[in-house]
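TICKET: design request
STATUS: open
ATTACHED STRUCTURE:
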């Protein structure tokens, strides 16, 4: 009976990840190479006894997808960010960085990312008004009237908007099957845009690993080792991107509530890797328009991420904390997490000198 509960929890997280995997494919990331990232995550969680699995994460996918001019830049950003995070995990430096930045800046940065997600959602609505509006409306109704469950929100809004697209006769998933990809080496490039994107992804991952890792660990009744999480999620990103795949990051996982949270998390990643290896995800994409995730992105960004993190950011009582938090959040939303965190650190330094007090 406990195995059935573990399996159901794993399947639930897989269902939550599939639409976000379709989002990754819409930005050009290939599905088959991404399976390597899930395999690394499964092996690492089993070896380290970690209850925090990795999967498709809308925030990272959206950031990499929108900051890179083309696929090669996106892959390079993910590769360099993954390699850097793996090094931080090896040397246990994540705590040092977050202590240096402080809770106000980290939470404000995450709130800014929430605004970015909402902006991307509205962009999808402009691309496909019918699908986007149906997705937004359905997501709002499901989230607020079915117990604020994100799994229900993403699955039902995706199905409803896909049905609307089918009924209206839209051509869905053109060329999607070609994005399965082969295990071919994609040599990273380096330019200023790639550097900025990699730094932005690092900043986002720092906040995400702490927030999502801690929450998932808490659900499982244990203290998650964030340095371990940073190591294997970074390795997964670097290897996946090196062969053309997308980023896989820490998530708030329902597997943490299963009878055997570590086993359920590993099972989820193995199932997702199998789906990617056999090319099932792009086939699903032939029936699901990429804009169908608009509603989920809006709920995740504007309803879940922004209020929680903004409240934590503005709870600071230090000199200039509210101003620092506000500027960090707005600059992150307008530019990217790296520029936002940098702006916050500058203000924190100035207020520390007594300027503006």
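STATUS: resolved
RESOLUTION: sequence designed for all positions
ATTACHED SEQUENCE:
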């Amino acid at each position: 009976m406990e195995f059935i509960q573990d399996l159901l929890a794993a399947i639930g997280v897989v269902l939550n990840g599939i639409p976000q995997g379709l989002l990754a494919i819409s930005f050009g990331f290939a599905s088959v190479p991404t399976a390597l990232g899930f395999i690394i995550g499964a092996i690492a969680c089993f070896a380290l006894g970690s209850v925090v699995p990795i999967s498709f994460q809308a925030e990272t996918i959206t950031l990499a997808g929108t900051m890179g001019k083309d696929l090669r830049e996106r892959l390079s950003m993910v590769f360099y960010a993954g390699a850097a995070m793996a090094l931080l995990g090896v040397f246990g430096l994540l705590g040092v960085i977050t202590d240096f930045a402080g809770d106000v800046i980290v939470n404000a940065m995450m709130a800014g990312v929430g605004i970015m997600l909402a902006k991307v959602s509205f962009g999808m609505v402009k691309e496909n008004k019918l699908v986007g509006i149906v997705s937004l409306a359905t997501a709002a109704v499901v989230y607020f009237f079915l117990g604020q469950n994100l799994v229900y929100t993403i699955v039902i809004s995706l199905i409803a908007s896909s049905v609307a697209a089918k009924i209206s006769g839209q051509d869905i998933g053109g060329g999607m099957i070609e994005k399965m990809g082969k295990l071919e080496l994609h040599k990273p490039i380096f330019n200023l845009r790639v550097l900025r994107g990699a730094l932005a992804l690092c900043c986002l991952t720092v906040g995400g690993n702490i927030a999502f890792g801690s929450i998932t660990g808490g659900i499982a009744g244990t203290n998650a080792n964030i340095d371990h999480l940073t190591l294997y999620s970074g390795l997964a990103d670097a290897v996946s991107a090196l062969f053309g795949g997308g980023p896989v990051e820490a998530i708030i996982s329902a597997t943490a509530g299963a009878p055997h949270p570590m086993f359920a998390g590993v099972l989820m990643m193995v199932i997702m890797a199998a789906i990617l290896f056999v090319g099932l995800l792009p086939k699903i994409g032939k029936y699901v328009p990429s804009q169908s995730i608009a509603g989920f992105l809006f709920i995740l960004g504007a309803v879940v991420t922004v209020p929680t993190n903004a409240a934590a950011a503005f709870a600071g009582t230090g000199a200039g904390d509210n101003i620092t938090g506000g500027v960090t959040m707005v600059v992150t939303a307008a530019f990217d997490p790296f520029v936002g965190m940098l702006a916050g650190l500058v203000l924190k330094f100035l207020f520390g000198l007594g300027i503006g007090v």
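CLOSING REMARK: The chain has a mean pLDDT of 89. Residues 319 and 351 are 6 Å apart (CA to CA).
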